[in-house]
From TrEMBL:
Its EC number is 2.5.1.87. One of its GO terms (molecular function) is ditrans,polycis-polyprenyl diphosphate synthase [(2E,6E)-farnesyl diphosphate specific] activity. The keyword Membrane applies. This is ditrans,polycis-polyprenyl diphosphate synthase [(2E,6E)-farnesyldiphosphate specific]. It is an enzyme of class 2 (transferase). It comes from Holothuria leucospilota.
Amino acid sequence: MSWSISQIYNSWRNIHFLLKSAEIHGVMAIIEQLLYRTVHAVLWLYALVCTWLIGLRKPIQYNQRKRTLRRCQEDSSSLSKLPRHIGLAVLDGKISFPDVANIVVWCAAVGISYISVYDNEGLLKKNLLELTNHISEKEKELLGSERSKFTVEVCTETSESGQLTGNERRLSDGHNSSCSKRSKIQLYVIGPEDGQSSLARAAKQYCEMASHWRGKGTDEQEIDVNEMLHARYNFPDPDLILKFGTVSSLLGYLPWQIRLTEIISYPSHHSIDYKSFISLLHIFARTEQRFGK
């Protein structure tokens, strides 16, 4: 088959156009990567500046006062509002169990009733015994004899039904307890599988219920997905999440429960001190939550 000059020329033009398009696409990909890295650098710098400002605003008296349960309660009384449920998203690499235990004990001491701790690799759940031992040690170290004035119950998912039951420990006296009983402090240890699997389980349950109604020929009833998810997690939605790490994501922390949650970032949980913790609570207290208004 012979090719005319015009056909050869047109083929060359098409090939040239494709090469130019691929070149432009490659340039655009490079530009997108540069923009992506620039945004992350700006966010990292923002977090660094915020940390510096928090350090400047730390009240000096916190350094000079001995931390006791009474002192912690006095510090919390100076806040205009206190989160009922605080989430700790530990996303800054290697986990320091003593530092996480410190934050948990401070939360309990200032009067926060529900605490959830999360890491995107599930190491806190896998090393639950180590975490509870550190919390118990920090209670003795920071609060002394006053630790008997409150209890911390630790809950994690152990049952096949997906309920957050079992594996509970009452740290103040060492006796077994139940998370269903009313206690002053409840600590929930969660991992990445809790967020995704809970939504998948709720979706499966919804489909099964809808199929059941269709099979019986009855009208479908209204299903409250929010109620289904809260039946599994026996705690209120978090009012505040302290995100430790420079990544601009919660990396799987319970996605359904954080619609109205205030999120405050801090570069690292490593070596965080009580002054910084209280300063973060002051930031939350000054926050005006409009709830979509």
